[in-house]
Amino acid sequence: GSKKQHYKRTSHDWRFSILDDAVLSVEKWMHNTIKNPIPKLITLDVVVPTYRVQMEYLKPILQLKGSKTASTSIIIIVDNPNSNISDLKKFENNAFVRIHVHEKNLGASEARN
Fold first, then answer.
1. Rounded to 10 degrees, what is the CA torsion of 30, 13, 10, 78?
2. Which of 17, 64, 90, 94 is the most exposed place for a label (fewest CB within 10 A)?
3. Strand ranges across the sheet with 70-78
4. Among 73, 98, 96, which residue's Cα sits nearest to residue 88?
5. Residue 61: which of 100, 86, 97, 107 has the closest Cα?
6. Residue pLDDT, tens place only, 66-87
7. What is the pLDDT of residue 14?
8. Helices marked H in 36-95 — which ranges?
């Protein structure tokens, strides 16, 4: 895009073998050190950008039940600071739901990123 970047891009020489070796090392340590190690979980973050905050669509997403095999977070991005979010705020105490309201309308692209 033509907008100024929010951060400086850097690259790192991460290779899958480095990460795999690190994970294996931690798993071995946990197996040898912890009596009942915590099982490995998949992490899933669901990002839902919205402009109109239509609860008939958001509520079923926000009421999804968690899984025993995955750590899930639902992140709602409200791109219209003038939206009525009173119904949405009822979910803000849910540890698996995060709500972020933009201070101004940034557009669909920014809301998704």
1. -40
2. 17
3. 42-50, 70-78, 97-101
4. 98
5. 97
6. 888 888 899 999 988 888 888 9
7. 66
8. 55-62, 86-89
Pair of tokens at residue 10: 């850097």
Rounded average pLDDT over 36-54 = 85
Distance set, CA 94 to CA 20, 41, 98, 106 (Å): 33, 20, 8, 26
Amino acid at 23: V
Mean pLDDT of the chain: 84
Residues 6+ apart with CB under 8 A from 109: 1
Whole-angstrom distance, CA of residue 53 vs CA of residue 87:
9
Residue 85 CA: distances (Å) to CA of 9, 19, 30, 77, 91 = 34, 41, 43, 11, 10
Contact 110, 89 (CB under 8 A): no
pLDDT tens string 2-27: 666 666 767 776 677 888 888 889 88
Q: What is the pLDDT of residue 59?
A: 92
- The span from the CA of 105 to the CA of 66, in Å, is 31
